[in-house]
Amino acid sequence: KQEVTQIPAALSVPEGENLVLNCSFTDSAIYNLQWFRQDPGKGLTSLLLIQSSQREQTSGRLNASLDKSSGRSTLYIAASQPGDSATYLCAVINQGGKLIFGQGTELSVKP
Amino acid sequence: EAQVTQNPRYLITVTGKKLTVTCSQNMNHEYMSWYRQDPGLGLRQIYYSMNVEVTDKGDVPEGYKVSRKEKRNFPLILESPSPNQTSLYFCASSPPGDRGTYEQYFGPGTRLTVT
To answer: Which long-range contacts (CB under 8 A, 24 or more apart) does B47-54 make?
Structure first.
């Protein structure tokens, strides 16, 4: 059974730092992996999607990488800002459409 | 505007009173799915649908029903709600894997309280 783990569960950094969020999964037979952001009490905003054949995707200050063989993905945030404070979730989806989320990393960026 | 809509956004009900949460998307997506989010348990998939008249169980389908009679709508039905179904519910849609990426587009959420 696929399990998705995100480490750390919470992270607090000063503004301007570069940071890395981690996502690991137990079954490498994934179709894609998607990173989301969730603000308190709000819905999910898609940040980046990496298909299984890809190694990384970039959007602005965000870069996500995928290593299927080792069951890992990382989300790199450059020059963090207080507005980046949110919970970041990764999710893996298999060929049949079943989707499993990690528990999330709660990020706080202090001014 | 391309979007996924859910109604109602907030609902307080009593145990055993049947309810339906609607989900609609205007992006012509084949794939639709329901999730629940609970503190400490994260987001878990309830049901998903690859296309009209095709539905499959996710990780936590017990106590829920779904139907997919038309492409744009995917209602979630609680025949006899119980307090353990108090949760934040999200609907999502995506293009399918064979012609897309399964990139998930989420609705705004429905906060359900069952007393």
So the answer is: B47/B76, B48/A97, B48/A98, B48/A99, B49/B74, B50/A97, B50/B96, B51/B96
